[in-house]
Amino acid sequence: MPPTGALLPGATPPDLIRNFCIIAHIDHGKSTLADRMLQLTEVVDARQMRAQYLDRMDIERERGITIKSQAVRMPWQVREGEQAGEMVVLNMIDTPGHVDFTYEVSRSLAACEGAVLLVDAAQGIEAQTLANLYLALENDLHVIPVLNKIDLPAAQPEKYAEELAHLIGCDPSDVLRVSGKTGEGVAHLLDEIVRQIPAPKGDADAPARAMIFDSVYDVYRGVITYIRVIDGRIEARERIKMMSTGAVHELLELGVISPEPIKSAALGVGEVGYLITGVKDVRQSRVGDTVTINARPATEALGGYSDPKPMVYSGLYPIDGSDYPLLRDALDKLKLNDAALVYEPETSAALGFGFRCGFLGLLHLEIIRERLEREFGLDLISTAPNVVYRVDMEDGAERVVTNPSEYPAGKIGTVYEPVVRATVLTPNDYVGAVMELCQGRRGQLQGMDYLSADRVELRYTLPLAEIIFDFFDQLKSRTKGYASLDYEPSGEQESDLVKVDILLHGEPVDAFSAIVHKDKAYNYGVTIASKLQKLIPRQQFEVPIQAAIGSRVIARETIRAIRKDVLSKCYGGDITRKRKLLEKQKEGKKRMKMVGRVEVPQEAFIAALSTSDAPADKGAKK
Ligand SMILES: Nc1nc2c(ncn2[C@@H]2O[C@H](COP(=O)(O)OP(=O)(O)OP(=O)(O)O)[C@@H](O)[C@H]2O)c(=O)[nH]1
User: Fold this and answer.
1) Which of 91-105, 295-309, 437-451, 471-485 holds the top average pLDDT?
2) Best residue for ligand 1 mutational test, from 25, 26, 31 (most atoms within 8 Å of Cβ)
3) I want to staple 502 with a disulfide (CB 3.0 to 4.6 A). Which of 190, 202, 220, 512 is the partner?
4) Strand, coil or helix: 412
5) Does the C-beta of 270 come closer than 6 Å to ligand 1?
């Protein structure tokens, strides 16, 4: 239902606009609540409604997570209170909830004046609730505390209202209660959004300034950029300018999403909408950048812009070497929609041609890999993920290492590794288990607070490298699933790191090299060596498998020699049968990779890497 009268896009007075987002821990019901709001405000009618309307990507819907934020304009007629009967425009900005996408969350928040802080009434506050709340407060947002899922038999609204009120310093009676599932309390919440969240303020006469809070590549339209107008007015058919690069673009279309795109002649102060310029790559329309009008440009960009920086690297290789060009094309396509994805060609003696790719985090890696396999039909091997190391050489040179096999030889001075500030929320009973885990991962306790009688917040500094392996799964299993985790980058620290090489018959296998802490080197070496010993078939000569730091061997396994005579079974004189067997053996050899003189089946690499691989961090889901 298109908006009417004074509420047309481009002609809505700021005091009739409310811009808000919903922030929540994963699975606390943000998408479901958003769906109910779409229905109640009648922008989507019941027939069109499908679960999680706003999550457009298939992977998002299947995994139930939100990756790309979207903004929807919802006209709402206030039902109760002083403003009853009045029409207002609510712009809801859906934010991603995972730590990998913190930068996108913070930009979405900056486009709003208020936030609905949604907490599952059966779970209470979780680590991400806190992290998101802090982000919202940093952005000066008005926060409306809301308990969701009050229809659940296990809901404890009294207890958690108390907890929430304590956290944000309000009265427990100010905590709203809704059910995204049944719709209970949602109309009241919309009224409260209008009543509590401040209207946008901006200078309507100033040169235009709009902030980009999302940008999405569309096959048919090119890049669709989501903006929030701060000052002035953006008119359709103007030429716009990106303030970070100075690039000028023709404006092909301007509009709002409600929830399908509706074209508009202009967007004024406080409005949220989209623009299309014909650029083909989201890198030309970056989240956080400021858009202005070329004819009358603003002089100062809005603050807060920063480039996304990859935190985790992994090599991606096609299992079938002839798929390499396909993989390159697929990465080129994904890049159009993902300003944070970086990659460059790399060759591995063991795995052939592939790409070293940089990601924001493990979930990002997993999503990209899954899209490559699913949307482009590729079969891939990914090497164990690693973080970015900085190495100061004794001669004063500095190296940045994104691939363990490029770890410099020679006189190494100091090695630095990235660290994160992690927040773990856990019931009291598991504090010991959590501390043990964090200490085992070289964590340093920074602080500890009781949120309520039985819930504790622990703050740790941890090396990122220790988290990207099974940390999250360990945390969950040691706390019976009760603890939650959130973390953010926090610089780097000096560390006692070494590179462990794995040698087959004296030849290093680059795909298995790893940079690990000195104390863990032995463990890594033994694990990989014994795994390979089981995976590699016997050869015609004895094959030692060694783990080494430099020239010092720290672990060794041996594959004993065997002489495999395939013809021994064919004692008869049938020459065609013999030939067939020899052919078959040749076929088998094609699937082998030669490492020095050793034949290694492709499967051995896959098996060894997939188990030493971080177990797909289930997106911090459960
Ligand atoms: N009983 C009940 N279940 C709900 C309610 N709201 C959401 N759920 C369920 O909770 C689960 C998570 O809901 P989502 O809306 O996908 O959660 P989300 O916060 O959007 O999750 P992410 O997008 O992954 O951050 C789903 O299985 C929903 O069906 C509610 O009010 N009551």
Assistant:
1) 437-451
2) 31
3) 512
4) strand
5) no
How many whole angstroms from 414 Cα to the centroid of ligand 1?
A: 47
Alpha-carbon distance 230 to 175, whole Å? Answer: 30
Name residue 557's amino acid: E
β-partners of residue 507 are: 504
- C-alpha to C-alpha distance for 469 and 472, rounded to whole angstroms: 8
* Three-class SS state of 333: helix
30 lines ligand 1 (CB under 6 A): yes
Pull the structure tokens for residue 442. Answer: 């070289």
Scanning 139-237, the segments in alpha helix (DSSP H) are 157-168, 186-196
Binding positions for GTP are: 27-32, 148-151
What is the pTM (predicted TM-score) of this model?
A: 0.74
Over the stretch 389-403, which tens digit does the pLDDT of each residue have?
A: 999 999 889 999 988
Look at residues 38, 76, 68, 54 and name the one whose alpha carbon lies nearest to residue 197: 76
65 lines ligand 1 (CB under 6 A): yes
Our CA angle for 499, 503, 504, nearest 5°, is 160
Where residue 67 falls among pLDDT bands split at 50, 70, 90? very low
For tokens 């030889």, the residue is 409
CA distance 501 to 405: 8
- What is the 149 CA–ligand 1 centroid distance (Å)? 8
Rg from Cα positions in the chain = 28
Query: Reduced to 3 states, what is the DSSP secondary structure of residue 315?
Result: strand
69 Cβ inside 6 Å of ligand 1: no
Query: How do strand 142-148 and strand 114-120 relate by DSSP bridges?
Result: parallel
Nearest by Cα to 269 from 221, 206, 354, 347: 206
Place of tokens 């900056």: 110
- Strand 389-393 to 412-427 pairing: antiparallel
